[in-house]
Amino acid sequence: MSSIADELTSALGPGKVVQDPAVLAAYAVDQAPVLDYQQPLAVVFAESVPDVQAAVRSCAARRVPIVARGAGTGVSGGAHATEGSVVLSLERMNRILDLNPDDETAVVEPGVVNADLNDAAARHGLMFAPDPASFTISTIGGNVATNAGGLRCAKYGVTRDSVLALDVVLADGSLIHTGHQTFKGVAGYDLTGLFVGSEGTLGIVVGATVRLKYLPREVHTIAAFYPDFRQAAAGVLAVGKARVQPAIMELLDGGSLVQLDEIHGSDLAGRGASLLLVQTDGFGAAAEADVVRDVLAAGGAVVTTEASEEAEHLVDMRRNSRGVEVDDQYRVGEDVAVPRSRLVDYVAALESLAETHEVRLKVVAHAGDGNLHPTFWVDRVNDLADAEAAARLNKALDASIAVALDMGGTITGEHGIGQYKLRWLSLEQPEPIRELQRRLKELFDPAGILNPGKAI
Amino acid sequence: MSSIADELTSALGPGKVVQDPAVLAAYAVDQAPVLDYQQPLAVVFAESVPDVQAAVRSCAARRVPIVARGAGTGVSGGAHATEGSVVLSLERMNRILDLNPDDETAVVEPGVVNADLNDAAARHGLMFAPDPASFTISTIGGNVATNAGGLRCAKYGVTRDSVLALDVVLADGSLIHTGHQTFKGVAGYDLTGLFVGSEGTLGIVVGATVRLKYLPREVHTIAAFYPDFRQAAAGVLAVGKARVQPAIMELLDGGSLVQLDEIHGSDLAGRGASLLLVQTDGFGAAAEADVVRDVLAAGGAVVTTEASEEAEHLVDMRRNSRGVEVDDQYRVGEDVAVPRSRLVDYVAALESLAETHEVRLKVVAHAGDGNLHPTFWVDRVNDLADAEAAARLNKALDASIAVALDMGGTITGEHGIGQYKLRWLSLEQPEPIRELQRRLKELFDPAGILNPGKAI
Fold first, then answer.
1. At B176, which CATH number?
2. Residue ranges making up the domain that contains B47
3. B169 and B108 in a common domain
4. Element (DSSP H or E) covering residue A333
């Protein structure tokens, strides 16, 4: 019997199926911690919808799991290869098929890079709103698969809110079209929403029609330094109470400032123990910025009053604050969200549990959404101490999850469950909800070949 | 064997199950044209979640269809009783259980009236954004069931965009909780989105957590009168090209102006053959209004320059423009949406096909969304002529649907498929999509008791 790689090569033609060990290794994982390393049998670089259909059909015939993947920038392991799987890369399907500035929509292949779509849209005064930190390299297909968020979704919504229609290859290789080309449409069930965020477990997204929003012509950015983290978190609530909706509201704790200083040679930590960055945009940006400055200053912040270039530079630094860090067993970034009113309490709880479990902590937060990214880590010493430290780290992670859920929060605001967060899912979702999702999965993928062991 | 009404009474207690003929008649239909009048066996007025569960269990045991219903303001027949069904009214479950101004969320029972939630939210500078024309009487549960839109969704989104979490009674009477209390959350599949807009066919929504938006402190309203309808439609595109996002952009044709004049004694028709109403809001409202005025004047409109009270009054008139009209076989309001760039073409096509089929036409449109509500009607003369006129009306309706689909549109932007629009659904959605939805329906409701014959 021929191998699955041979069969894929014969189905798709030359140059699309790779078994080079270096490529297999590179495509075995995304940027999440690896719990169960598995090398894929092959990596397929699809160049068209029929390529994807052929790959799915070949895999379906042999019951080989298929892990679809964009740029592999996910941090929950949604694109980690599973045992005996084929990884299907959609990177080569990177054409913007249509960009209609009057309809304010674009039709894209899944491998289009977020930043490339934004560049194309910007020429018409438009933008694709979702802006995950990875936007310079992550793909629209990946954004859709994880329902990606980002910095500006407090005002502009998450990926779901920008997706109008999808082309999806189902587990039997058939192609369906969901949704509508119009802004509004309520014919039948919301299949589009069901596929968004399903991490390639229900179908493989091979095309998307997205709504574009207006690129704001005016942007004001405010940097507010605080003597402590909790006060900065309180500033987020104060802006909300003033009923001003910023485009961006990012919160950084002292540990994050130290890290930025190390990378950039800046002196942010010398200016405060916490930083709140607020960006207003649109025709009311200046007036909104005035209100924000007053409110934050009244709450104890040292607020930038100069032109906002420096603050904008800080936003860029924040966007890249993840740097080249890749999580592993000694360093894990979280993605909890809590109701906004609990921000201060949650921040206090994080600081306290880091102390209790003797782990290091830094926190950045899309604070306007109540979505926090605490990173816990331990310094490595030697094998024995490291094992003990990793155990402490896991206890701190579990505790941070438990506290978030206790406050009415979620274990994942925007990164997805993937593979890494499965261990906490039952804490958030009781068995009837999980069973319902398993049955949905079974309806779409009875043989269980689409990215098994992920998302639900 | 006891009747279903007796069994429901014994399960729910006194005062909740009604068989009075006048009540049965009142709850047999919503505001849509009636194709197949069916009187329900009983009307259940649930007062609690356990009431709903008990009613569903009683109906499930006898395989009696159950039609859930809010205020019955739907215009697609989603709440029409079906043969041998029980109607379940959720009107009495009308408590706002929580309104947290810091979280910017509210937890409501399904029978809370949209306007009541908005009044409560307004005391905190907040609003529930979806504003269907029926907002003074329609319920949040009904808004959720139909994924209702309204005037301000161009800027603030449809109901789906304001719903964070749902409590749902399933077909077996069990209660589940979907979604999250936070703004963002991507744990598992989007069950919340699947229930929104499903018209009570997958489960019965007995509670909702909604996100509130900021009530704008400043609002500017512009009335622009045009010599013809197509020029007014072109004005919508011109505002878009200026990359200004109004909160409201309503388009009215000459027929609609004549009707408003008849109701209110105004002289709108004397001022132009079409009216475009644009409302900007927020901190940038004045600056945005200036741009809008310039753009519309340049496109041939006579634009109000005075204080916006008069224009605001026109928006109120527009909100109520449906008046007491209830559709029947001689008068049908449509709900198509087209990509924005096709607005002018579509408006031209409507005018042309009304002439071809010799039917009367008036059009209002949520033009910012490309969502149009043409109403076609014929004047009644005598039985013979009326039958022929009704046939012409149906041909005009079919033609208006065909043209919208041909332009990449949808048959329903915000009203839902209900019962009345089922005849067109296969024109928009091919068999594989319809089959997939039937299988979803079967998964949630294997016995087919939840609002059968609707939505899909």
1. 3.30.465.10
2. 4-89
3. yes
4. strand A331-333
> Closest chain A residue to B217 measured between Cα atoms?
A243
CATH of the domain at B347: 3.30.70.2740
* A443 is a domain residue: no
Q: Which residues contact A50 (CB under 8 A, 6 or more apart)?
A: none
Q: Report the chain A residue with the minimal C-alpha distance to residue B126.
A: A243
Contact list in B for residue A104 (CB cut-off 8 A) is 240, 340
Cα separation, A194 vs B195, in Å, equals: 10
pLDDT the model gives residue B306: 62
B422: left (phi over 0), alpha (psi -120 to 50) or beta: alpha
Among A144, A168, A189, the strongest candidate for a mutation testing the B interface, having the largest count of B CBs within 10 A, is: A189
Q: Do B239 and B265 sit in the same domain of this protein?
A: yes
Contacts from B56-61 at CB under 8 Å and sequence distance 24+? B56/B169, B56/B170, B56/B171, B56/B172, B56/B173, B56/B204, B56/B449, B57/B11, B57/B172, B57/B173, B58/B4, B58/B7, B58/B8, B58/B11, B59/B4, B59/B86, B59/B449, B60/B171, B60/B172, B60/B173, B60/B447, B60/B449
Mean pLDDT is lowest, of A43-57, A257-271, B35-49, B419-433, for A257-271
A454, part of any domain: no
Looking at B89, B109, B142, the residue that finishes a domain is B89
Same domain, yes or no: A381 and A276: no
CB < 8 Å to B346, chain A = none
- For residue A186, the chain B residues in CB contact (below 8 A) are 146-147, 158, 197, 410, 412-417
The model's confidence at residue B70, banded by pLDDT at 50, 70 and 90, is very high
ipTM of this predicted structure? 0.96
Inter-chain contact B188–A214, Cβ cutoff 8 Å? no
Q: Which range has the worst mean pLDDT, A273-277, A304-308, A415-419, B428-432?
A: A304-308
Instruction: Measure the CA angle with vertex B343, ends B342 and B345; round to 5°.
Output: 65
- pLDDT bucket at A25, cuts 50 / 70 / 90: very high
Amino acid at residue number B180: H
Q: Do B413 and A125 touch (CB under 8 A)?
A: no
How far B437 CA lies from chain A's nearest CA (Å)? Answer: 7
pLDDT for A322 equals 67
Candidate from B240, B415, B433 with C-beta closest to A102: B240
Residue A154 — pLDDT band, cuts 50, 70, 90?
confident
Half-sphere exposure of A149 (CA within 13 A, CB side): 28
Residue B286 domain-assigned? yes
A311 pLDDT tier (thresholds 50, 70, 90): confident
Do B67 and B154 lie in a common domain?
no
Q: How far is A391 from chain B (nearest CA, A)?
A: 25
Please determine, for residue A366, whether its predicted confidence score (pLDDT) is greater than 80: yes
Q: What is the pLDDT of residues B220-255, one digit of tens each?
A: 999 999 999 999 999 999 999 999 999 999 999 999
Q: Could you tell me if B261 and B305 lie in one domain? A: yes
Same domain, B188 and B109: yes
Residue B109 and residue B207 share a domain: yes
Out of A259, A287, A319, pick the residue that ends a domain: A319
Kindly list the residues from chain B whose CB atom is less than 8 angstroms away from the CB atom of residue A158.
184, 186
pLDDT band for position A320 (cuts 50, 70, 90): confident
Q: Are residues A100 and A207 located together in one domain of the fold? A: yes
With contacts defined as CB-CB under 8 Å, which chain A residues touch B154?
Answer: 183
- Token readout for B285 is 């409202």
Q: Residue A436: inside a domain, yes or no? A: no
Domain with B239 in it: what CATH number?
Answer: 3.30.70.3450
- How many structural domains compose chain B? 4
| CB within 8 Å: B105 and A184 | no
Q: Which residues of A touch B366 (CB under 8 A)?
A: 184
Whether B184 sits inside 8 A of A160 (CB atoms) is no
The residue among B322 and B219 whose pLDDT is bigger is B219
Q: Residue A17 forms beta bridges with which residues? A: A44
Least Cα separation, residue A291 to chain B (angstroms): 10
> Which chain A positions have a beta carbon within 8 Å of B435's beta carbon?
none
Task: Render pLDDT for B72-96 as a digit per residue (tens, 0 to 9).
Answer: 999 999 999 999 999 999 999 999 9
Q: Tell if the CB–CB gap between B417 and A186 is shorter than 8 Å.
A: yes
pLDDT of residue A324: 65
